[in-house]
Write a sequence for this structure.
């Protein structure tokens, strides 16, 4: 099979949003178009609404399919579309950040009633950092939302990206009539409640077409004025600007009513980038290279305690992945082979013989693979851009059953390798500090340690707000600082020193007082630095 052809027909992306903006509903509608699912509601169980660990675990168990829904692959118009799922719950934001390292583009969903919400801003920050092309879908037009122009301003300002509407709503809420496609100059009239795959499109010659007046009545005039304003205010849409992540095209619609989704999908497939070259520590890796390279961006534990294996998700970056072929595990410096690699077509896991750049392969693993690990055909390279981010909550992990401390150590090690939380150690590992972005993660860790490892523990609150990775060109200064602040220093899973700050203010002071030391808010040092002004 021609590898170039395979690469060009792949589109690997994630849908991201603040919880409740409509990510699940949109995903579901896209899968309906792809023929992957037949009924609406099939991906509903993917939601984590409740905040108790037992609910979370129950949902995970019910999901059983959660592994399958981590990646959803379908074929549309000869293209292979890989949607990487991201957890909606904010406490699992880091999982989302990591998934963003494995995609080539993103569709961002904004609720027209609520506008740009906090989590969207955070996610967008990661996209900007990685220069990931973004398409925005403004959802829930069947509700009384904000004015479209106001939303555009807000998106531009809060997400710090130039926007260009490619469709435009006619009315909103109960008066919502449809959308005008500014790119193709056609009109889609809204018919509420249509959740099946349907065409609503009406071709209009141009904005002066009397059909517009016939269909829209007085709204036709408003649309003409709006379009004139849009043409005057916004730059022409440029695919190159989108691909450089400098401008985001914006679509309007209603995922629940399956309205505006087809336009979104078709434009997405036309302009979204196929797998791109990726930066590794040693060099840039082109997808068309003959030899395989790929990295692990997610690890999923088997929830069934009788089966200790896990599934590692490998994003293929170059070459061809083949079943039963030996690959080089760069971190361990040894050959590994996978006899049952999976893909996730039609929401079912099935064993595959080969995979191409852009694909995500599920690999059964018994503890050899960690997030960030790279597989190659012999070259010692590691992909950049899979950093740990500073957690926001910190607790000391205390064993409450000394007889089971070995199990506790093992459990904590494995759960943090999965990326559930971050583990920092002090006193040669005797004191363990767990860092997370949300409360729910502590509950899940507690629950899983007990149920999967038979180890009980409690968490003691620590008054830290930030963790910063430390580097310095002056080893003596670093050593002095670490001695002086020993109480607030720990080491991450790779042994890198980390400083815990109790507030942004305190961190800013440390940065100012210690000019020879660099404080980094991610474990990947080239990406973000703490500035004296905070973060
Ligand atoms: P999420 O994955 O981003 O968290 O959001 P999800 O798709 O679950 O949507 C959140 C809620 O918004 C759901 O309602 C969903 O039905 C609704 N929704 C999604 N798209 C639209 C839309 O275009 N218009 C309107 N009016 N509502 C929309 P829910 O009541 O919270 O859940 P459910 O009972 O419908 O499952």
């Amino acid at each position: 099979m021609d590898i170039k052809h395979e690469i060009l027909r792949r589109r690997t992306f994630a849908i991201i949003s603040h919880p409740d903006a409509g990510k699940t509903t949109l995903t579901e509608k896209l899968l309906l178009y792809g023929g992957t699912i037949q009924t609406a509601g099939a991906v509903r169980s993917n939601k984590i609404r409740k905040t108790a660990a037992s609910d979370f675990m129950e949902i995970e168990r019910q999901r059983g399919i959660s592994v399958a829904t981590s990646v959803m692959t379908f074929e549309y118009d000869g293209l292979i579309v890989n949607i990487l799922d991201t957890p909606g719950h904010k406490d699992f934001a880091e999982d989302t950040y990591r998934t963003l390292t494995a995609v080539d583009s993103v569709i961002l969903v904004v609720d027209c009633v609520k506008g740009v919400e906090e989590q969207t801003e955070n996610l967008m920050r990661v996209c900007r950092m990685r220069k990931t092309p973004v398409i925005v879908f403004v959802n829930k037009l069947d509700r009384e939302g904000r004015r479209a122009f106001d939303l555009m301003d807000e998106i531009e300002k809060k997400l710090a990206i130039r926007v260009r509407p490619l469709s435009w709503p006619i009315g909103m809420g109960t008066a919502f009539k449809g959308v005008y496609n500014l790119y193709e100059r056609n009109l889609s009239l809204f018919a509420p409640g249509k959740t099946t795959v349907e065409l609503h499109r009406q071709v209009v010659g141009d904005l002066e077409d009397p059909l517009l007046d016939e269909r829209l009545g007085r709204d036709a005039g408003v649309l003409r004025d709006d379009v004139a304003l849009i043409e005057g205010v916004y730059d022409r849409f440029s695919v190159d600007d989108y691909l450089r992540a400098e401008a985001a095209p914006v679509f309007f619609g209603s995922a629940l009513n399956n309205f505006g989704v087809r336009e979104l999908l078709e434009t997405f497939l036309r302009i979204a980038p196929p797998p791109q070259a990726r930066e590794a520590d040693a060099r840039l890796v082109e997808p068309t290279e003959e030899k395989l390279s790929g990295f692990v961006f997610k690890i999923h534990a088997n929830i069934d305690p009788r089966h200790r294996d896990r599934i590692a998700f490998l994003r293929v970056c170059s070459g061809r992945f083949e079943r039963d072929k030996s690959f080089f595990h760069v971190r361990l410096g040894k050959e590994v082979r996978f006899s049952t690699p999976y893909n996730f077509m039609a929401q079912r896991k099935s064993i595959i013989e080969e995979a191409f750049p852009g694909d995500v392969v599920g690999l059964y693993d018994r503890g050899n693979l960690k997030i960030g690990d790279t597989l190659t055909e012999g070259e010692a390279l590691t992909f950049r851009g899979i950093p740990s981010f500073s957690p926001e909550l910190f607790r000391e992990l205390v064993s409450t059953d000394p007889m089971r401390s070995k199990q506790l150590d093992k459990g904590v090690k494995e759960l943090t390798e999965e990326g559930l939380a971050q583990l920092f150690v002090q006193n040669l590992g005797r004191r363990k500090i767990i860092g997370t972005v949300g409360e729910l993660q502590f509950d899940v860790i507690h629950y899983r340690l007990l149920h999967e490892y038979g180890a009980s523990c409690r968490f003691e609150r620590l008054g830290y707000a930030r963790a910063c990775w430390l580097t310095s060109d002056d080893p003596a200064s670093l050593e002095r600082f670490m001695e002086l602040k020993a109480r607030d220093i720990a080491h991450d899973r790779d042994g890198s020193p980390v400083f815990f700050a109790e507030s942004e203010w305190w961190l800013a002071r440390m940065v100012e007082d210690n000019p020879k030391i660099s404080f980094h808010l991610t474990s990947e040092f080239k990406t973000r630095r703490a500035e004296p002004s905070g973060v």
User: Anything to note?
Assistant: The domain at 3-271 is CATH 3.40.50.300 (Rossmann fold). Confidence is low (pLDDT under 50) at residues 45-51, 63-68, 526-535.
